[in-house]
Amino acid sequence: MLRTYQTKIKNQYTQYLDEAASFFGSIERKLFVDIIVRKIKRNSLKKTYIKTFKISARQFNSLYNEIDGKIKSFIECRRYQINQLKDKIESIKIAIQKQTNSKINLHQRLMENLKKNPKDERLTKLVKKYKNIKLLSGFAYKLFYDMIKSKASRCGVEVIEINPSYTSIIGQFKFMKRYGLSSHGSAACVIARRELGYKMERFPYVNPLGDFNFLKHKKTMYLRWSSLSNIIKNDKFSDRIEKLKS
What we know:
By secondary structure, the chain is mainly alpha-helical. Helices cover 65% and strands 6% of the residues.
């Protein structure tokens, strides 16, 4: 049984204690390296340290046991942390699976075919100036496609790719105010209509943003929506949404 006594040490002895602590601290660090890095056996270390540092066998045993206890404590803590992380990972996987199963409950999922997006064509024109833009854009598209298709395949859901050209602007003009949708929700409505086989929506020649009858000379609805997109692309998005909802 160990007993601890509180004593009052005079200042004249503190220097000796500091030197002793520094001496045994340096021995402990060297012993740690020999045990962990060099992997020298205890009996061999004991003989060497007693002879080199002029310490007793009891002092060596005390240093060795302290280091051994710290190592075992560290290993046990790491094992506990690893088990905790494994449990968290499993719980996160279960939560993701539950959310995915609750959201993907249809036999088909519609997805924008971003490769046909006019924005991607504009990125292609910038490749010469910024060489990494196309690479990063393509990587993001590929990662998104693979993630959706892989998850849909596991859940037995068919993925249908839809051309997203001007779906956002068409949704803003045709469905946002009518159904009280957001800009993204109205664009999704246009994508759904395209999958069902509907023709491109009629062009609103007179709308809250102005009179666009001058676009009637365009041969197709696609060209009219394209021209409108180019006309209003520099407008502030929030201002445009407020006018269309009014």
